[in-house]
Write a structure and sequence with these properties.
By secondary structure, the protein is of the alpha/beta class. It is built from 11 helices and 12 strands. The strands form 3 sheets. The chain has a 7-stranded parallel β-sheet, with helices on both faces. A 3-stranded mixed β-sheet has the order 7-9-11. The longest helix is centred in the first third of the chain and has 21 residues, at about 95-115. The relative contact order is 0.14.
């Protein structure tokens, strides 16, 4: 039985990926390493914690000795989700972002090289490409130069460059995925969609940066997980694959949809001072992964959003237990 090391597997996307991977491949064993920062939650995987195909290890990917011990257990594949990922927090203090996102990636790459893994997947973000203008048809491709505009995206771009360097220098079998904004079950309440849902349920003000017209390309986390698995199975070493669902929507429109679904007043919306360096628009050209690997998204945005709202309505214990609301 081959072993997949998933780092950051107690977070939003990582936990969804582990569950999805084990549903599709009962012939794989998953080791989940997570530091359990505020964004990591073991309850995200409570339904599989006793599975014979799953093992959780609390640990920091920056801990070289720990990671070396784990790799010695016989790791075949690495999927690196471990990252500090909230832009607002990176603006307040960037140090932990550089530590985890760059130095942690370097530790994983060194151990992957040392122990001869078969494939390493670096889960990155569209934010490394920078910002696009509104009212254009421009979209990021894999050849778009990296132009990060905040400490979070700069740390992810730095990690991507390290990953590419390990391929070019050592021929380490690495692949980078860059995905657009995710939404779905188990997303931390600091993010736009769950925060809006929870505040609306609680009749609390919903803060909107600037004019609310910042545009993001949204993808359901299950579609993202399917894309990562496709890259793990078919992706070509040294390549980058953009992942997106062609759902460009302004933040304010998402908030208004959530309020309509929950039958709440738009009077809850409060426009606040814009975030420093707030990227105006992201848009992904994902034609490469469509053509070369045969992956396409399947979940309609508004249907997926409605199901996500319903999940948060029915899972109030999950988010109330975080003591954040």
């Amino acid at each position: 039985m081959k072993t997949v090391l998933v780092t950051g597997g107690c977070g939003f996307i990582g936990s969804n990926f582990i569950r999805y991977l084990l549903q599709k491949h009962n012939d794989l064993f998953v080791i989940n390493v997570d530091k359990l920062t505020y964004a990591g939650n073991t309850k995200n995987l409570s339904d599989i914690e006793y599975s014979k195909n799953y093992k959780f290890i609390k640990g920091d990917i920056c801990d070289y000795r720990l990671m070396d011990d784990i790799f010695r257990q016989g790791i075949n594949y690495v999927v690196n989700f471990a990252a500090e990922s909230h832009v607002d927090r990176s603006i307040e203090n960037s140090q932990v972002f550089i530590q985890t996102n760059v130095l942690g990636t370097q530790v994983l790459l060194d151990n992957s090289l040392k122990h001869g893994i078969e494939k390493y997947i670096q889960v990155s973000t569209d934010e490394v490409y920078g910002s696009l203008e509104l009212n254009t048809k421009d979209a990021f491709t894999e050849d778009t130069p990296l132009a990060p505009r905040n400490p979070y995206s700069a740390s992810k771009a730095g990690a991507d460059m390290l990953v590419k360097a390990y391929f070019n220098t050592y021929k380490l079998p690495v692949v980078i995925t860059r995905c657009s904004n995710n939404y779905g079950e188990y997303q931390h309440p600091e993010k736009l969609i769950p925060k809006t849902i929870i505040n609306a349920i609680n009749e609390q003000p919903i803060g909107i940066y600037g004019d609310g017209l910042n545009v993001r390309d949204w993808i359901h986390v299950q579609d993202h997980c399917n894309a990562i698995l496709t890259v793990l199975e078919k992706g070509i070493s040294g390549e980058v694959y953009n992942i997106g669902a062609d759902n460009e929507i302004a933040n304010i429109e998402i908030v208004k949809f959530i309020l309509r679904y929950l039958n709440k007043s738009e009077g809850l919306i409060k426009y606040i001072e814009d975030r420093l360096g707030h990227d105006r628009r992201y848009a992904m050209n994902a034609s490469k992964i469509h053509k070369e690997l045969g992956w396409v998204p399947r979940i309609d945005f508004f249907e997926g959003l409605a199901k996500t709202i319903q999940w948060y309505k029915e899972s109030q214990k999950w988010w109330k237990d975080m003591n954040l609301i």
